[in-house]
Fold Hydroxyglutarate oxidase.
Amino acid sequence: MNNKHYAIIGGGINGLAVARQLLLDFPDAKVTVFEKESDVAMHQSSHNSGVVHAGLYYEPGGLKARLCRRGAELVKEYCLSNNIAYDECGKLVVALSQEEEGRLEAIYQKSLANKVPDVRMLNAEQIKEIEPNCIGTRALHSPRTAIVSYGDIARHIAKEIKQRNGQICTGRAVAQLTEKAGKITVHFDNNEQYDAQFDYAVSCAGLQSDRLAKRSGDIETPKIVPFFGQYYVIDSQFKDHVKGLIYPVPDPKYPFLGVHFTKRIDGQMTIGPNAFISFGRENYSGKKFNLGDVYDFLTYKGFWKFSSKNMSAALRELKTVASQTNFVQEAAKYVPSLASVSVAPATRGIRAQAMESDGSLVDDFVIRKQGNITHIRNAPSPGATSSLAIAEYIVREVMSHS
Ligand SMILES: Cc1cc2nc3c(=O)[nH]c(=O)nc-3n(C[C@H](O)[C@H](O)[C@H](O)COP(=O)(O)OP(=O)(O)OC[C@H]3O[C@@H](n4cnc5c(N)ncnc54)[C@H](O)[C@@H]3O)c2cc1C
């Protein structure tokens, strides 16, 4: 019997998945989730592309490759057994030139190494059989890639946590975690503390994860640098020009993928997301400026090193930030019939992207244990796809329950 007391910081999909996994594995445990907002899943978990990634791109053997594959299976199972919408619409990664075909072949080989189901390479005519309006010289087709609403999944997990006698405390911003003689105290602002102590804590604080980790005695780097991603919804009359997901071949010159077509689970067709530095970690309107957040990245040497190495990428992204027409044109390279489609802006997402002090973006998931406190320090995309597998990994492998 395990009647230990666990604190989970952050009610995004990862924090909720960890809380659920603890209650599944240890039904007698006491699990308390602390979320600073008035509800769960108000940040990345409800501001993303909604894709259940099949695991095409990730370095075989890395955490992303392993947890994405397992996570995709678990998300599918969770949606189907809980009546949550799940659409296996499939995805094409499309090469437009011979040079891109070489890189596409490398992705195909990785997807085989990662055992992604049913992937195959298509020629130009075969592309038309899947996406009649799409042009390309070759494409990688992943028919098992799906779309969902991660916000809906997170809210369903929150209900399940309560049914399993877990507790979710919203409106509770945790300032710091301290550990003494194997007991963890949860501190809030104004010298306030939670009235019970905990045996273990898991911090899943997304865009605030580096700050909470540092205040709780973990190492300072990597730091979170926020990059927003803008989406546009295309005129609904034209949404059927694309059936599923159409992606470019990633270019190693650019740290982010470039805009693409993403079908939403509500049936809308979106273009996006681009990627540009955000003047606030939680600034979704793009109109405000958070002085503390901007000061944080401007005084980080990693940010300046990243910027100096990525000027051409910044320019590419800036074009899509500055002009809606450029944004649409980028995507229309793949579907020319949508070159002049009218679009309306949709809510942004803001990526919690970890950056090392040498300016490199951390690619793989980073999960660090320090004493009885575990910190998720980097969980970018496919972090939502992987959430249920990240939870299994943390509960069954990272945490020691001795
Ligand atoms: C633009 C964009 C597109 C993406 N597309 C996809 C995709 O298609 N597929 C995919 O798999 N992944 C995608 N991702 C990644 C995915 O959204 C994230 O990996 C995932 O949502 C991370 O979940 P999380 O719970 O770790 O973080 P979050 O959802 O950000 O949750 C963190 C929570 O912690 C809370 N919190 C923070 N600090 C404190 C504190 N001090 N005290 C209490 N609570 C605190 C926050 O309020 C928040 O609720 C995308 C992300 C972005 C931004």
About this structure: Residues 11 and 40 are 5 Å apart (CA to CA). The mean pLDDT is 96. The longest helix spans residues 63-81.
